[in-house]
Write the structure tokens for this entry.
Amino acid sequence: MAAFGLGWLVNVVDTIQVFWPSGIVTDTTNVAAYQRITLRETAQIGVPDDGVPGVARLLAAYPNPFRASTTIAYDLSAPSPVRLFVVDPAGRLLRTLETSDRKDPGRYVVQWDGRTDDGRRAVQGVYFYSLTARDFHRSLPIILVR
């Protein structure tokens, strides 16, 4: 449970965005002040709010933050081409973790050791790991500490 105060000068919150550990993101907009609201992770995993099953699900990396290596997992519900990569905050490619013309449905697990494609150690900071599978694309933050 988390509680947030807005102060007396705010009447409406534009957006509340919750990043759940499963990778689901909940956006709630135009929330009136002076109330208590409860947000729950209710969407089925791999099924967007419109009820149409998605082809993939990107899971939260662990550990995060990490020092030596981290585990990144994703699920596929249908055969799909896959690209899993790490970018810096400017969107520049740092490391390609996986690329395939076709992966079968299932869970896949990949390790990232904090190195770039050319083998150099990435500097400490915030990065984003991204999964593209058919029309699915999702990026989640990851923190490397040295």
In short: The chain is about 0% helix and 50% strand. The longest strand covers residues 93-103.
